[in-house]
Amino acid sequence: MSGPVVFKQFKYIGLSCRIFVVFAALTALSACSAPVARGEFNDPYEASSRNVHAFNKGFDKAIFGPTAKGYVTITPPLLVRMISNFAGYIGLAGQAVNNVLQADAKGFGETILRFTVNSLTFGLGDLATEAGIPDNNADFGQTLYVWKVKQGIYHEIPLLGPSTTRDTAGFFVDILINPVNLLNSNTISAAGAGLYVLDRLGDRSQYSTFYEETLYNSEDSYATARNIYLQNRNFFLNKGVAEDSLEDPFADFE
Fold first, then answer.
1. Which structural domain range is residue 17 located in?
2. pLDDT tens for residues 220-231?
């Protein structure tokens, strides 16, 4: 067996092992999280999370927010949209993997159709949305939800913001399982990281009113961000079904 083939096999074996370790850690953390009474947040480390929130808020005020405003000021709006479109386009590969893991045939068909249609513009345009083809935005956090993994502990991540145990594990597994990230190229990896940052800068500018109302104009920005994140995330996980059918973010995590 040739050297490159052996290396590639070990690469995929290593990937599978890392996914298993993340999944096992997630299961353990979810199981060990203290049950809470209905109507309370599962936020046992709120004090430390508030410290992270304060750091994130300071980073946004001093660096991220001004950089985002500068980015959209010096970059033509068309180019900002093209960068956002391309970031979504290359993310469709990992999205398709999650559709398969969720046994979501409809979602997989939508993702493949979006990829095919947007390939006509090399991913720089979003003809799929214009044609009414929905974007299901499947991620591994949602996959874990479909697999009945509890959401675990709420927390904030430095630079990334609000999350839960389940969604944090999902974020890192999404990085690992995205076929684009399996390409053995430092140039592609660096380009992907740069594209992610530019896309987030574009989002920060586009939703600047929301960010600033939440972070700077609310009485308790930590509690406001927590509430908005959990409600919106549960709405997404349940694909926009009626509120009384949603997974209760305050329910016991036994």
1. 3-39+61-235
2. 999 999 999 999
